[in-house]
Amino acid sequence: MTNPIKVAIFGAGRWGTHLIRNFYQHPQAQVVAIADPHFERLQKAKERLLLDDTVQLETDWFKVINDCELDAVVIATPASTHYTLIYEALERGYHVFAEKPLTLKLSESQSLCSLAKRHNRQLFIDHTYLFHPAVTKGQAVIEQGQLGQLRYGYAARTHLEPVRQDVDALWDLAIHDIGIFNTWLGQKPVEVQATGTVWLQPDRSFDLSSPSFPISNNISGLSDVVMATITYESGFQAFLHLCWLNPDKQRRLALVGSEGTLIFDEMLKDRPLTLQRGYLETVGEGWQAAGVECETVEVEPAEPLAEVCDRFLNCIRHNQVCSISSGEIGTDLVRVLCGLSESLQQGGKPIQL
């Protein structure tokens, strides 16, 4: 495929606008159309990104998917709409780029993966953090054994808005950190556990077994804060703190080993990745800290989303599955989130995956 890849983008909200910018500016892509039910968003995107008149603006995604000549569809719409949009695009023979999570139901994610294989089309999930240069460099540090024996991990992802009305804080935030831990460890979770608290939306809930929103479940409302434990096959555990009702904005993840701790802190733009070295020596009947020093790990500057979009287009050109952001990987993450939701609804009961 030597001609530009013809792309339609569904969703012109906050993240959709970033995707429009990246695909519109990419030399190997041609943005044919943008669809969003709110026409004012389309107009705003056109003015803000200086889109030319060749880009078709539509409030009806069905018209775009049926009437436009396309190679691929980019989906940046609420998660509850993903299954229908992805299914229709794959059925028409289009490659698909979808915002995370792939779907809200494991069975639907599995079905879409099978459909993509059947039509020999790429199903690519936007797990942007897995393309962050700090995550890539961090994986190299771990593989070099600089942390010693891995012991446990922890992450905090908190902020004050945006507050979602279709999913809870778990589904909105946890997928990023779980994806990073999975990648750094090279393992999949085997058991999960979660508890949560609701303040803002006590009468609004969602049920993973039903496409209808909102409905009631055992946890009344959408959880505003969630504490989760992820256990891996090696016994390694990661602890997550997730909240969209906290003015202390954090984007911090750490992996602790016997020789030091690797810290990815997105809020520190000039040094997002650090290695805090240190270990304990036996002194008499006690222990004493030794080798304590903090090292900044150099990370090449890059926009992760630009790398994501470029990789998707490359996967289309070669019709090759992405090793870190495929539909199967997206499905694995949905499986973990479904397990965590089940635990949340059962008051923190451990769930085997």
TrEMBL record:
InterPro entries: Gfo/Idh/MocA-like_OxRdtase_N (IPR000683), Gfo/Idh/MocA_Oxidoreductases (IPR051450), GFO_IDH_MocA-like_dom (IPR055170), NAD(P)-bd_dom_sf (IPR036291). GO terms for molecular function: nucleotide binding. It comes from the Bacteria. Residues 5-127 form the Gfo/Idh/MocA-like oxidoreductase N-terminal domain. Pfam families: GFO_IDH_MocA, GFO_IDH_MocA_C3. Residues 139-262 form the GFO/IDH/MocA-like oxidoreductase domain. This is Oxidoreductase. It comes from Limnoraphis robusta CS-951.
